[in-house]
Write the structure tokens for this entry.
Amino acid sequence: MGKFRKAERCVSCTTFNILAPIYKRLDDEDQSCRESQYKAYWLSRNQRIIDRLLEERSSIICLQEVWLGNGELVDMYEKRLGDAGYISFKLARANNRGDGLLTAVHRDTFRVVNYKNLHFNDFGDRVALLLHVESVVPFWPYRNNTSSGIKQQMLIVNTHLLFPHDYSLCIIRLKQVYKILRCIESYQREHKLSPIPIVLCGDWNGSKKGHVYKFLRSQGFVSSYDTAHQYTDSDADAHKWVSHRNHRGNICGVDFIWLLNPNRHHMPLKSSWNRAIFAMIKCLLQGASRSEEDAFAYLKANNSTDFATFSGFCQALSQLGLSGPCGLSSEELQDLWAEADIDSNGVMDFIEFQKKIWRSPKWWEEPEQSTCPEEKLIVKNEAEEKREALTFGFNVKDAVLFPPEVEKGMWPDNYSLSDHAPLTVVFSPVQLPSAQPVF
């Protein structure tokens, strides 16, 4: 893919959870035996990981579970990537967890404008690393003048979400994504950015059937791998590929490179967040085998009237495990209630419960504005190009998982680089119609 990318000025991105040696078990029976105890093992494996990354030559590299607590390993990554032309940024997880994130961008492709560290400050000590970059060479030169033109800017986020050890952690994972998206919105406002593409990379620790996936879809993001292979959000396509064999021995697809083009049509962030929580409430109530009437009675919290009050609603959500120190805040509960109480009369009746929670449509499948018919380049003369404010984004050109077996939903026993598969996506720049406001 190297020649193809160079010829068309494409941008490539690799995300890879490289499995920190402090977590890699060498003996299934002895859980205390970790790779970090044997330098020859972790050194050899990480050398092979870097070999693979350098062979791929991606413009952007996003790594998770980098053993940042080991200076020798960090120096090895920074030196070898630096010698190959990359500039690296690191962010350790909070409370000295030992591992963290590393994002590297190639100097021949991007100049780093700014970066921002995000600490979730919740259970699991998770973090996210945001980079604001600009293309070194203009993607869209004026006519045949390659020395001037439009230099594309974009935002890149690298993260590693909490593992869902049980369903009670789902609200924390959803809040982590919400914090990332709010951070992006805040950054764009603070720096007065015009609409630019956003790429989210990482180990999301959840599949296409989960709330995190649906939440990001409601915000206009597309899964690059699924887009490249024309997979839909349907259950039939949910298990076409895998990228992880977890500590329980289950294989699943959890590593994503998400793309949001600046003209994607999506609902406001807070509305999308509220709908995601309503969907989670419904899922929890259905999981307890409650009927529609019983579910509403549960939200009334022993209220003998025909209405649910705010206090009863909050009590029910607390019992469902959705509020508390790491769950919904009092402000978020107020916002949720304001949307549930459609007529603003201070109570939620059965009809409002049906509309907002029980019988609501698939909230993540809102109508989307196309990113233009096949997003072909609009040819204009130089004067027109200078006059108009142009909006640029990316097409997903190709996407590959390694090893090849995972693209067929299988996990090969002889694969030893990590318990995750690296995902590489190739984007081609494209001129887009002017961005439309969110609805």
Notes: The chain has a mean pLDDT of 87. The domain at 2-266+366-432 is CATH 3.60.10.10 (Deoxyribonuclease I; Chain A). The longest strand covers residues 391-401.
